[in-house]
Amino acid sequence: MRSARRAVVTILTEDHGLPVQRACQIARCSRTAFYRAQRSDAAVSPADADAPVITALQAVLERHGRWGFWKCFDRLRALGHAWNHKRVDRVYCALGLNQVRRTKKRVPTREVVPLNAPPQLNTTWAMDFMGDSLYSGRSYRLLNVLDEGNREALAIEVDFSLPSTRVVAVLDDLVAQHGAPRQVRCDNGPEFIADAVRTWCEARGITLAYIEPGKPNQNAYIERFNRSFREEVLDAWVFTTLAEVRAVSEEWRNGYNTERSHESLGNVPPLTFLPRPTNATPSTFKLCA
């Protein structure tokens, strides 16, 4: 019925020269329906109509992936495109570009460091961070340091925040107690690549052996230690204060070094496999509250 009325309007306007308004009144057809039908007959698909906008937007975002809508629109105008912001915004949203775009974080390229662990003390230390939360929900961090020569846990540092200066303080205390290692193996965390840690290692002739990004297996000894610590302490206890975490962690660390057998060490504890010298200097570093 509607198509017939539109056909009548077309005949009246084209063959008899009546105005569209009068022809629509005679055919009892609204002008909106008549014009909409004309546009639908002559119009191209929305994808084809917006193809130039899509191409231009993608070209801008290919070079500037973190730009938002208005920067893209201003750039399109600067390139001479006359589309208004409403059309560009419609296409921008239809492409899903109004969502948060996560780009891959750039990390430095690292050389592969062999995972060699000769049975010698202070050849290579490994360090890594862990995270957990108290019963209240507040998160805290742990810095673990391991001697790969005998798998001895040298330190488990616990606090709400462990910046690079705190990492340096822990390492300084361990060097005073056990002597300096030849190298320290770690990942590319912001605390480990900070100037404070790199400067401290350079001043003492210690090599920082960074693993490749996304390859935790290149730091397998500390990762295996982290698993044991999480299963036997963090997943087994509900802590309400940092003091509890420190007390239980220190007790577990002593048992790990002196009682817990290791298959890779011939089923003996680390300090039985390769004891520390008895004349080591006592630690002077105190935990921060």
Task: List the keywords.
Nucleotidyltransferase, domain 5; 3 domains; 45% helix; single chain; disordered C terminus; 5-stranded mixed beta sheet; 5 strands; alpha/beta; 12 helices; 289 residues
Can you count the beta strands?
A: 5
CATH architecture designation of the largest domain: 2-Layer Sandwich
Mean pLDDT: 87
Fraction in beta strands:
5-15%
Helix content: 40-55%
CATH topology of the largest domain, by name, is: Nucleotidyltransferase, domain 5
Spans where pLDDT lies below 50 across 5 or more residues: 279-289
Description:
- Strand 2 and strand 3 form a beta hairpin.
- This protein is of the alpha/beta class and 289 residues long.
- The protein is built from twelve helices and five strands.
- It is elongated and about 115 Å long.
- It has three domains: 41 residues, no CATH class; 49 residues; 150 residues, Nucleotidyltransferase, domain 5, CATH 3.30.420.10.
- A five-stranded mixed beta sheet has the order 3-2-1-4-5, with helices on both faces.
- The C terminus is likely disordered.
